[in-house]
């Protein structure tokens, strides 16, 4: 259907914003089970990058679901929409020249791949926070696994809905390692890819 909307190209581009920032823009997309460590790693990574004078923004599932996505449930359909919206916001922030860090379960490969396809090639970095469900369940800081096992919460990832692990992630983290070591691994990766120079 024709919608009469035409893309408008503006004079200041992402490349120029990146030059001003003295680093490249990227989306560092953390995916993993609830309790795998996404938020902890994302927060510590942002702090480390901030100290290196990198312009960052962190989008976290729990927080985004208080506002932008407060109308969405945990059904497959709503998770798809959640990830689509977050992907679009990440794309805008990437265009603004930021290193965007996202922490969403994002359990479905198709949804993650759709986000990657909407972003400039090479600027979507898929990070698998690989923590066995037994470990996540033992951590259970919010008591959600306990509730899901008792049937008090349904559609819980890893209990009655699947988690599709990335087949070929850019970075594969062992979520049982200390957060500081995982952050160092990510910083090393960003340097290796020429996103940050320091
Ligand atoms: N049913 C169900 N399944 C999974 N998670 C649940 C559910 N209900 C609430 N929560 C809490 O919501 C957080 C996950 O939100 P996300 O936006 O990251 O999920 S998704 O990407 O849309 O699948 C998740 O946060 P994390 O534990 O930080 O991953 C949970 O705290
Ligand atoms: N690498 C780690 N080693 C040990 N405990 C961790 C690690 N990462 C996170 N945790 C702990 O596990 C729990 C879940 O971490 P969190 O970052 O909230 O995970 P997620 O965002 O994936 O749900 C928290 O209690 C946190 O302190």
From TrEMBL:
One of its GO terms (biological process) is hydrogen sulfide biosynthetic process. GO terms for molecular function: adenylylsulfate kinase activity; ATP binding. Keywords: ATP-binding, Kinase, Nucleotide-binding, Phosphoprotein, Transferase. It is an enzyme of class 2 (transferase). InterPro entries: APS, APS_kinase_dom, P-loop_NTPase. Belongs to the APS kinase family. PANTHER family: ADENYLYL-SULFATE KINASE 1, CHLOROPLASTIC, BIFUNCTIONAL 3'-PHOSPHOADENOSINE 5'-PHOSPHOSULFATE SYNTHASE. This is Adenylyl-sulfate kinase. The lineage of its organism: Bacteria, Pseudomonadati, Pseudomonadota, Gammaproteobacteria, Enterobacterales. The gene is cysC.
């Amino acid at each position: 259907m024709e919608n009469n909307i035409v893309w408008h190209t503006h004079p200041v581009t992402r490349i120029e914003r990146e030059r001003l920032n003295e680093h490249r823009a990227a989306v560092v997309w953390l995916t993993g089970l609830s309790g795998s460590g996404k938020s902890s790693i994302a927060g510590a990574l942002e702090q480390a990058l901030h100290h290196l004078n990198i312009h960052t923004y962190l989008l976290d599932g729990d927080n985004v679901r208080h506002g932008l996505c407060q109308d969405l449930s945990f059904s497959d359909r709503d998770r798809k929409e959640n990830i689509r919206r977050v992907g679009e916001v990440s794309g805008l922030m990437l265009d603004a020249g930021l290193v965007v860090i996202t922490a969403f379960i994002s359990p479905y490969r198709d949804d993650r791949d759709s986000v990657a396809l909407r972003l400039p090639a090479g600027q979507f970095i898929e990070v698998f926070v690989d923590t066995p469900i037994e470990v996540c369940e033992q951590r259970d800081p919010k008591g959600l696994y306990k509730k899901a096992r008792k049937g008090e919460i349904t559609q819980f990832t890893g209990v009655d809905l699947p988690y599709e692990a990335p087949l070929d992630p850019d970075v594969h983290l062992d979520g049982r390692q200390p957060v500081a070591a995982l952050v160092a691994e990510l910083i090393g990766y960003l340097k290796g890819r020429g996103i940050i120079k320091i």
